[in-house]
Amino acid sequence: MVRAGSASVAAGPTLAVVAREAGVSVPTASKVVNGREDVAPETRRRVTEALDRLGYVRRPRFDSAKAPRLVDLVLHSLESSRSGAVLHGVEAAAYEAGLEVVVSAGPNRTRGARPEHGWLDKLTTRGSSGVLFDVAELSASQNAWLNHHRIPYVLIDPAHEPPAGVVSVGAADWQGGVSATEHLLGLGHERIAVIAGHRCTPAGGARVAGYRSALASAGVRHRAEYVRHAGFDETTARLRMHELLDLPEPPTAVFVCSDRLALGVYAALAERELRVPDDMSVVGFDDLPEARWVAPALTTVRQPLAEMAATALRLLVRMMHGDRPEGTRTELSTRLVRRASTAPPANCVTSAARSEAER
After folding, report:
1. Which tens digits make up the pLDDT trace of 15-25?
2. Residue by residue, what is the 3-state secondary structure of the chain?
């Protein structure tokens, strides 16, 4: 494999000069250059300003014109079915673009209590032309490192709001929440709960907002006690479902904002000896393989993960050639996939519900 960085570059200030300019030690300046977390914000600011002011060039310097046709895909996990869908989409789009892909587990993995940063150095060492990230978020120092080395990157479905100017690809989460709730309303349900992820995530917030909008459009009263949050944990989702079942007037249906959380909901219902969908209708979100494997098969909102990943790769290719996308956020449409986990509420089969169930 051809590697970048062998050509000579014009002489510039040394790291020692930068450290002296910023009033810090050389090891501290090195930490900032290499994206290390253990630097105070004010110190990081002084060093970053000195780097820019003096025109410091880290070697090997990323050079998109000379770099090989290689991109990195950094996944949160190498073991999940979600990652498999993302990898499939990237691989197909990379083949069309004539690119090689290096796959690794994410920068937020830890050894003990300290995050790993070796992947940052490896990017420049092997001369990657750009990076796709399928991780919850990047730290401020990681974003700063990538920007400083002018390495283009795109986030795939980030859980948290990306920094200003960072390009990302996601799904139409609000519309997905509307579709899931309208499906349950069409079956005749009015006592519809929602179990979402973290309160602060844009995707979870948009899905809950879509749920509320669909209720309002149908003239159904929104109940605050029907809205629960479970993070990304199946066990917590199971506990939240138990809380809903313990309400004086429990719901007859629940929209769960991820298929993984829906597995926890199924577990809670089984513990109460309640049947899906006879006693409780359940709708998920994602359409992971698990949605087809559970019994009964899960009605869910399909998030086009493979297509999102392929779109992210195509955007990255444009950025590698100096073409900045007009907007920083690209959204792909979602759609409801009807399976066996939803039905009209017991003793309430309306004509609208029959029509919805027969589709």
Report:
1. 788 888 889 88
2. CCCCCCCCCCCCCCHHHHHHHHCCCHHHHHHHHCCCCCCCHHHHHHHHHHHHHHCCCCCCCCCCCCCCCEEEEEECCCCCHHHHHHHHHHHHHHHHHCCEEEEEECCCCEECCEECCHHHHHHHHHCCCEEEEECCCCCHHHHHHHHHCCCCEEEECCCCCCCCCCEEEEECHHHHHHHHHHHHHHCCCCCEEEEECCCCCHHHHHHHHHHHHHHHHCCCCCCHHHEEECCCCHHHHHHHHHHHHCCCCCCCEEEECCHHHHHHHHHHHHHCCCCCCCCCEEEEEECCHHHHHCCCCCEEEECCHHHHHHHHHHHHHHHHCCCCCCCCEEEECCEEECCCCCCCCCCCCCHHHHHHHHC
